[in-house]
Amino acid sequence: MRLEGGSALSLRRWWRSAGFARAGIAHAYRTQPNFRIEVWAGTLACAVALALRAPLAPVALACALVLGLELVNTALEAVVDLASPELHPLAKVAKDAAAGAVLVASGGAVVVALAVLLPPLLRVLGF
């Protein structure tokens, strides 16, 4: 891997791109209340998985899916607002569908949490 220049394999280029990604995540955290809730819910779910010695991978992947889709939803809303400042039925469809994707992933994450975390939690509680 080259460490300089414009190559796609450039470490400098990758680091710059990662900075843009961090800026996008920070913007979403600052401006999107649902993203903040999902970050903390995911953190709690992962902590519970670790505390219960339950498999972390499915919980972490479900959390990453929800957060990733929330970031895509935020990006899509910004683009739709830029392209269509006035209310438009297709803009509504785009925004609603993106929000629906987050909702579907969130439902799946709840199912994963129940399947992975509930059995060890019930054992700890003596059930």
UniProtKB/TrEMBL annotation:
UniProt keyword terms in alphabetical order: ATP-binding, Cell membrane, Kinase, Lipid biosynthesis, Lipid metabolism, Membrane, Nucleotide-binding, Phospholipid biosynthesis, Phospholipid metabolism, Transferase, Transmembrane, Transmembrane helix
Protein biosynthesis recorded as keyword: no
One term of GO molecular function: kinase activity
Database matches in InterPro entries: DAGK (IPR000829), DAGK_sf (IPR036945), UDPK (IPR033717)
Entry's EC annotation: 2.7.1.-
Keyword S-adenosyl-L-methionine: no
UniProt superkingdom: Bacteria
Entry's transmembrane regions: 97-122
Gene3D superfamilies: 1.10.287.3610
Matching Pfam families: DAGK_prokar (PF01219)
Lipid bilayer topology: Multi-pass membrane protein
Localization per Swiss-Prot or TrEMBL: Cell membrane
Entry similarity comment: Belongs to the bacterial diacylglycerol kinase family.
Protein name from the UniProt record: Diacylglycerol kinase family protein
Annotated organism of origin: Deinococcus petrolearius
